[in-house]
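Re: that chain you flagged

S.,

Sorry for the slow reply, it's been a week of failed gels. I finally had a moment to sit down with the sequence you sent. For the record, here it is as I used it:
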Amino acid sequence: MTDTSLHFPDGFLWGASTAAHQIEGNNVNSDWWRKEHDPAAKIPEPSLDACDSYHRWEQDMDLLAGLGFTDYRFSVEWARVEPVAGTFSRAEIAHYRRMVDGALSRGLRPLVTLHHFTLPQWFEDRGGWTADGAVDLFARYVENCAPIIAGGVRHVCTINEPNMIAVMAGAAKAGDHGFPPAGLPTPDEDTTHAVIAAHHAAVKAVRAINPGIQVGWSIANQVYQALPGAEDVTAAYRYPREDVFIEAARGDDYIGVQSYTRTKIGPDGPIPAPQDAERTLTQWEYYPPAVGHALRHTADVIGRGMPLIVTEVGIATSDDTRRVDYYTGSLAAVAAAIDDGLNIQGYLAWSALDNYEWGSYKPTFGLIAVDPVTFERTPKPSAVWLGNLGRVRELPRTTT
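Prediction finished late last night. Pasting the structure tokens below so you have them in one place:
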């Protein structure tokens, strides 16, 4: 047996990701807060205090830096920054600026997401993304984030998973309250056009704030795998759910690639994973190479020269040894893609913390456990392992 290593380049982003609503707590002006407390929505449990990271972000960053991570992706909460239309909170803008400065002082490079699923209630009440003037309102919000991102922020993500925003809008319009056994609902076309326009406006606004910022957005990749004879069906199914959003990133500085599992497509459409397949706590098929396929597909659509960053990847499990195994397989797929010439610039795990997974705390994605009563943080063995890899930038591999 010969021991070899998979290598990651100097400057490679090595970190973990979070989203404001999922960790901050008491995000009372967001649309999700209202939805969580609406009995008609049938949300299993509300976010409430979440991880109390609004007050404990310094502790979170101390842990990540101490573990060996060099990058931290976190989001700015629009509903905090602009709780009332046209009224911007200086205190909240200062809060997020302190987070940027706090990350930098700890040796963590911040990747700042400006929109991660949640909206201000007033924006939703106007009709959301498809309402008249919505694009300009989002651009105005981005412009008012200038004090947060103008200095020291190298990477900005405008909108997290715009394709899932369009999918959820399509499901709501169709009256669907759950996803099919395999695949995704049909995206709402008007929402697709709106979020693409909002992204383009936000990119322009970010570049006006500081042309040195690398700006892009992150796309959820479902790794659609065609069974023999289903190639055309797969391409037609994938385009409105994924490829149109990848193509909209032409001219951006990078694309964020996010993937957790795969979806097989037959002549009649998506096929559920076999009954005996290993599944995660979200009931997704356990499939560590997913993000490698996602990176390769994104490069095929947009061109191999486009910088790609894995902005989310991970597994919901209560067995931390499976988390290590999942990341081992995932990183091997990323390293192989780098060896094949793809311009991959970073890898950020989802998630830094066990957090609120859009209706439930049961799916534990975190590298760090959070006590729901005391909020005590406890790094898992996977966090120590993955953080240490960030120091050496090598993944041991044994081949025969």
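What I noticed first: The two ends are 5 Å apart (CA to CA).

Talk soon,
D.
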